[in-house]
Specification:
Largest interface: B-C, 36 and 32 residues
Largest sheet of chain C: 2 strands, antiparallel
Order of helices and strands of chain B: HHHHHHHHHH
Strand content of chain B: under 5%
CATH superfamily of chain C: Ribonucleotide Reductase, subunit A
Shape of chain C: globular
Largest sheet of chain B: none
Helix content of chain B: over 70%
CATH architecture of chain B: Up-down Bundle
Number of helices of chain C: 11
Radius of gyration of chain B: 19 Å
Strand order of the largest sheet of chain C: 1-2
CATH topology of chain B: Ferritin
CATH class of chain C: Mainly Alpha
Oligomer: heterotrimer
Distance between the termini of chain B: 40 Å
Structural class of chain C: mainly alpha
CATH class of chain B: Mainly Alpha
Helix content of chain C: over 70%
CATH topology of chain C: Ribonucleotide Reductase, subunit A
Number of strands of chain B: 0
Chains: A mainly beta, B mainly alpha, C mainly alpha
Number of domains of chain C: 1
Number of helices of chain B: 10
């Protein structure tokens, strides 16, 4: 989990409880202010994704959600205007597939 | 168009049309560029010092910037001409924001050329321009003149924008501070442009069975030019063939996502 | 030429618009502003406001098509850069006037049918004359048609509407103030850039003056339709006084308003065309 996030509640939606996250603006300035907390820059090889994060395959920005992500969730990448669905990759990690 | 304040909602719960209405609007563009262009004249911090470069490095940078200007002029001519043929109002408004983005890129690159002592950028661009880019511009404008909207969007917003996005990001990591800041702002714009192209064509291909074959033919025609442009860009930046990074990866991935791999 | 064009750069545009008079606005007005309740409650007034706004959408769509189409045939980079800012300005105008239609109760799915229903046919023909020049790649005629004739008309129409709305509808007046600020740049560019090109290409005069005559004809016909054939409802008796060019708009009859607007716009045309070396041609009076 990103150190700037605080887990605040656990809800019962989906297949089991999902962690919920209170997002903070962490300096991604490429979308309107109200949406900035939903994105961050990928910080390179030492970086890791939190359970509420996935990388946009088109523009490589990290997409963030207020809830833990699971396969089948839909997410939006505003910086490149793409819609995508969360899937589990071959290595077991969450990835995003673009929906056209 | 904004459905509610972000304090109240989860962005990813928006309906698809709400999302598209939001991101294709002038208001979205306006509020986005505010974040990285406000108080940054010509795309860099107002107080950043302009470095003095070694003559050989400066000369390489002039060639690189001349080719960036060539690419941006092609993108400006292409995007402005596409406004007319755009099939929806949202697409027209988005392309109008892209027109302004491309013009800004051309302006900041020309400004940087001025800082490097180039008094007549037009003549310098003519002298140092990569022939493959000139040919690419001709191909793009021919597609627009023929009214071939999908081919033109593919050439402009997928091929050209992915090329620029990749080269600029790579160059930014290896450039002086002023050039680096300028390129980072440009990259932020390119995300929107390439994203628009790929998503727009992806939706079109889903409903147009013969579209994939048409675009594959366009891609095959453009591929040699793409290879020559990548190669020229790396030569200009100063990379020996053995040290070259796999710049074409983003391009190949985009082609693959659209199902256009031959 | 390059010195004056540096005033029309993207950098200047960014400082003037997003970081200047548009800062803090949403769709051109201030957060919290709304259409007056009396307007929304009165079906006649609401329909009139929709009809008026549709003419603005139609005009701005033509301007968007023209300015974007002119980028590619501009003879120099500086003109391309300015026309790129104008393209974005016009797209913004289309968006904010469409937003006003939504604010007036038009449903999104009904936007196109509403525009088709209310767009004045003479305004559409006015736009077609201009867009034919743009489609032919005629930069000089296109800029005169767009930045002198169309923008000159829009400038005066917006000014008159802003004066009329200032007290009655501050939200709409604020929207118009931003568009007027944009139009100033557009007409300024038109005059400054084209003056020198007309001198270089005197052979273009006849064709351009003919285009101006044709556009002026359709403009006057559109004014006639709007004010005389379907006059707006009279302002309420307690409406605050609104003055423009020495005329009390609240008390003026539709015929007086038509004459005021036509006289002002044509007066402006004459002055502007004269400055760039062209003669204004009076069209025959529309039937």
């Amino acid at each position: 989990m990103s150190e700037l996030e605080t887990m605040i509640v656990v809800d019962g939606a989906g297949d089991g409880p999902r962690q919920r996250y209170e997002l903070e603006d962490v300096g991604f300035r490429e979308v309107p202010k109200q949406w900035r907390k939903f994105y961050r820059h990928w910080r390179g090889p030492g970086d890791a994704l939190a359970p509420n994060e996935v990388i946009c395959p088109i523009c490589k920005v990290v997409i963030r959600s207020t809830r833990e992500l699971r396969p089948g969730d839909k997410v939006y990448c505003m910086p490149c205007m793409s819609r995508m669905v969360v899937v589990r990759g071959a290595d077991g990690r969450l990835e995003a597939d673009v929906i056209f | 168009m904004t459905p509610a304040s972000a304090g109240d909602i989860e962005l990813h719960d928006l309906r698809d049309q709400q999302f598209l209405d939001e991101v294709h609007s002038f208001q979205f563009w306006f509020d986005s560029v505010e974040g990285y262009l406000t108080d940054r004249p010509y795309g860099r911090d107002a107080d950043v010092a302009v470095p003095v470069l070694e003559p050989e490095l400066a000369d390489r940078l002039v060639t690189t910037l001349c080719n960036y200007c060539l690419g941006e002029t092609a993108a400006l001519d292409g995007a402005s001409s596409l406004v007319h043929d755009a099939p929806t109002r949202n697409a027209k408004i988005f392309l109008a924001t892209q027109v302004a983005d491309e013009a800004r890129h051309l302006e900041v690159f020309r400004y940087r050329l001025g800082e490097l002592g180039i008094a007549d950028p037009e003549a310098e661009i003519e002298r140092r321009g990569n022939q493959a880019l000139v040919e690419f511009r001709g191909e793009l404008l021919d597609m627009i003149a023929a009214g071939d909207w999908p081919a033109a969007v593919f050439a402009q917003n997928v091929v050209l924008e992915t090329l620029e996005y990749t080269v600029f990001r790579f160059h930014a990591d290896n450039a002086d501070e002023v050039t680096r800041q300028m390129l980072r702002g440009v990259v932020a714009d390119e995300r929107r442009h390439s994203g628009f192209g790929e998503n727009h064509l992806g939706r079109w291909l889903a409903t147009e069975p013969s579209g994939r074959q048409r675009l594959q033919a366009v891609r095959q025609r453009l591929d040699p030019l793409v290879a020559a442009i990548f190669s020229g860009a790396l030569d200009d930046i100063g990379f020996a063939p053995a040290d070259r990074p796999p710049l074409a990866r983003d391009y190949v991935e985009a082609i693959d996502r659209l199902g256009l791999t031959a | 030429m390059s010195d004056f064009l540096s005033q029309y750069s993207i950098q200047r545009w960014l400082e003037a618009c997003p970081q200047g008079y548009l800062d803090g606005t949403v769709y051109g007005y201030l957060p919290g502003q709304s259409e007056p309740e009396e307007l929304l409650a009165d079906e006649g007034m609401r329909e009139q406001a929709i009809s008026t706004t549709v003419q603005l959408v139609a005009g701005e769509r033509a301007a968007l098509a023209a300015s974007s189409g002119l980028v590619n045939c501009a003879p120099d980079d500086a003109s391309k850069l300015f026309l790129a800012t104008q393209t974005l300005d016009e797209a913004r105008h289309v968006e904010i006037f469409c937003q006003r239609l939504y604010d007036l109760g038009v449903k999104k799915e009904d936007l196109e049918s509403t525009v088709a229903r209310y767009a004045n046919p003479n305004l559409v023909k006015f736009a077609e004359v201009l867009l034919a020049k743009v489609a032919a790649g005629d930069f000089i005629a296109g800029v005169v048609g767009q930045n002198i004739v169309l923008e000159g008309m829009a400038f005066s129409v917006f000014e008159m509407m802003e004066a009329g709305a200032r007290q009655l509808n501050p939200k709409f007046a604020h929207t118009l103030t931003g568009t007027i600020a944009d139009e100033r740049r557009h007409v300024g560019f038109g005059e400054n850039r084209i003056g020198s090109l007309i001198k270089q290409h005197p052979e273009k005069r006849e064709e351009i003056e003919k285009m101006q005559e044709e556009m002026a004809y359709y403009m006057l016909a559109a004014f006639n339709d709007v004010f005389s054939n379907s006059p707006p409802p009279a302002a309420p008796s307690d409406a605050p006084e609104a003055e423009w060019h020495g005329v009390n708009l609240t008390a003026a009859t539709p015929a007086q308003m038509e004459e005021l607007l036509a006289t002002t716009v044509i007066g402006e045309f004459k002055t502007r065309l004269n400055r760039i070396g062209l003669e204004y041609r009076q069209p025959k009076v529309p039937a």
